[in-house]
């Protein structure tokens, strides 16, 4: 089975440690597919639908199949009371989420930001769906560890898309929404320590991105930031006020 040997392909595309090794290629039938080079080989993914190209029970994804099952339950019983995802279904949803994770990491490297936002939203729906309907406490909570990273990746993609469109204000707004969503996620996990929030890798990445963007704001927007700061203080929204102070400081430094 010499024709099945991947050695020539792997040799022509060496793995580079510490980098996202990804490319978009055209398949034999003309469709575009994503390939990610990993240390042990190549992951190949579809650009839309389920990354592995399958259609569980005829649906675009297992999440959609489970959502349809929920809808049938609601239609029959009037509400979602009594609906449950089995541990096997939750396991399969987690496996699907990993597929989508690999794809949205690849899409971010390819600067395909709409796809990143689509796939991170898909995974957020899986996290919420399992949390609400999982059979066991493990099924309900095990994916919470992915929530902050998923929120960060969504905010990063949204901000990067705004930067590409030369809309710095929109990029900063996307980052601020992402930071607030991460704060709420940590609080829902009973992590309310400000030091823990500050130490979060996701928070640090988004803050670094914001600090790089603030000096690009037109100076004419300084007065607008002052007005937003006053409004935040009046509303006792001290988290937003701290963010706005940082932005004003960076503008002064620039």
Q: Can you describe what's shown?
A:
The chain is mainly alpha-helical and 254 residues long. It has three domains: 1-47, no CATH class; 48-166; 218-254, no CATH class. The protein has helices at 7-12, 62-77, 87-109, 113-133, 137-141, 147-164, 168-188, 194-199, 201-213, 222-234, 238-253, and strands at 21-26, 32-38, 41-46. A three-stranded antiparallel β-sheet has the order 1-2-3, covered by helices on one side. A hairpin with a 5-residue loop joins β1 and β2. The chain is globular, with a radius of gyration of 22 Å.
Keywords:
254 residues; mainly alpha; 3-stranded antiparallel beta sheet; 11 helices; 62% helix; globular
In short:
The protein is mainly α and 254 residues long. 62% of the residues lie in helices and 7% in strands.
Write the topology of this structure.
Layout: H1 7-12, E1 21-26, E2 32-38, E3 41-46, H2 62-77, H3 87-109, H4 113-133, H5 137-141, H6 147-164, H7 168-188, H8 194-199, H9 201-213, H10 222-234, H11 238-253
Antiparallel strand pairs: 1-2, 2-3
The number of domains:
3
User: Separation of termini?
Assistant: 63 Å
Major beta sheet, strand line-up: 1-2-3
Structure summary, number of beta strands: 3
Share of helix among residues?
A: 55-70%
Largest sheet: 3 strands, antiparallel
Oligomeric state: single chain
Strand content: 5-15%
Query: What is the overall pLDDT average?
Result: 89
The number of helical runs is 11
**Molecular shape:** globular
Radius of gyration: 22 Å
**Poorly predicted runs of 5 or more residues:** none
The topology string of helices and strands comes to: HEEEHHHHHHHHHH
Structure class: mainly alpha
